[in-house]
Amino acid sequence: MDQHILLEAAERYLRGEMSPQEAEAFEAMRRNNPDLDQLVVEHHLLLDRMDTYADRKRFKSNLHDIHHTLQENGDIRMLEPETRGRLLDLWSRYRRVVGVAASIAGVTALLISGLTSVFSPKAAITEVEELRRKVYSLERQSSNQRAEINAVRKKIEPGTNVSFGGTGFLIDPKGYLVTSAHVLTDATGVILQNNAGHEYRARILMTDRIRDLAILKIEDEDFSPRSSLPYGISRTGIELAEPVFTMGYPKDEVVYGEGYLSASSGLEGDTLSYQITISANPGNSGGPVINRKGEVIGILNARQAKAEGVVFAIRARNIHRLVEELKAKEIDRDLKLSTYSQIKGLDRVQQVRKIQDCIYMVKVLM
């Protein structure tokens, strides 16, 4: 097949513009043609870079337009040549004095900063908070929680600590899940717990720190694969103000929350993410963001520290890209994503009832 036609087909595939039949046929070609598979992986990286470059160009253009408008309205003005000349003359005459003053000010600032760091209480001030939660020691648990943790310890080596928790959800009924990569920081192992309280050992197949995504696989004889998943993993976008809901584990049982898309990009214009207005707490990291059609459109990963309800979610199309990279590296070719939702048209209660068994608490072993 002509290289140009292959590139065009790869772009349509990555943009989610193929019909389900076309996508299935194209995926079959990829499995049988390593060169085509590599072409798709390389092309999706190229498209990512082009999108990032386009966003930067638009940002610079917007800044230029704003500057031009402010100048036309008289809100700002350029310095006249005569004024610039006077400024340069003053700088030439007094730059030594200014330099000494600046040095004194710098030393003073360093001293004040040092004293403040010594005598002030330590407080980490960040603009964004990750949504993984700390799991406390056994001594601080209730009797029910202690019994649950003891049950988990039967699955792991004696003396291993369960230190951090988050949320994950199935992306393939055979036991493949996705969660946030930061949930797994320094992990030596992973235990997954479903809404019924059953625990399963899982292996980390792949992590992507840039997209903040990780793929897990349940490898436990007690796990029974499902026949299918109720939701699909969307390749397409979502409209501003469209309602969404999420499910996760900010506590020791699955918790439902609902909100809406408030911006089509994340913090500082991050094109990998959405901004969502929804209630989210530590433990929600890795939880699915689902639209009214029952399609996963994002993965919760962080919230804005000083703004109530401002949460960020990685776009679901990045799951597709991570799976493609996993297959290209021949780590596991058995994983298959579906974009089809079986719960489209059901009311919210029915949708949640069918989804909740696919949502897992992620317990990180340290």
Compile the SSE list and pairings:
Blueprint: H1 3-14, H2 20-32, H3 34-72, H4 81-119, E1 128-130, E2 133-134, H5 143-153, E3 162-172, E4 176-179, E5 189-193, E6 199-208, E7 213-218, E8 232-233, E9 243-248, E10 255-263, E11 273-277, E12 288-291, E13 295-304, E14 310-315, H6 317-328, H7 348-355, E15 359-365
Parallel strand pairs: 8-13
Antiparallel strand pairs: 1-13, 2-3, 3-4, 3-15, 4-7, 5-6, 5-15, 6-7, 9-10, 9-12, 10-11, 11-14, 12-13, 13-14
Helix pairs in contact: 1-3, 2-3, 3-6
Short descriptors:
366 residues; alpha+beta; Thrombin, subunit H; 2 domains; 6-stranded antiparallel β-barrel; 6-stranded antiparallel beta barrel; 7 helices; globular
Summed up, the domain count is 2
CATH architecture of the largest domain: Beta Barrel
Taken as a percent bin, the fraction of beta residues is 15-25%
- Major sheet description: 6 strands, antiparallel, barrel
What fold name goes in the CATH topology slot of the largest domain? Answer: Thrombin, subunit H
Mean pLDDT: 80
Count of distinct strands: 15
Count, helices = 7
Q: Runs with pLDDT <50, length 5+?
A: 111-125, 137-143
What is the chain-wise order of helices and strands? HHHHEEHEEEEEEEEEEEEHHE
Specify Rg, calculated over alpha carbons: 26 Å
Structural class: alpha+beta
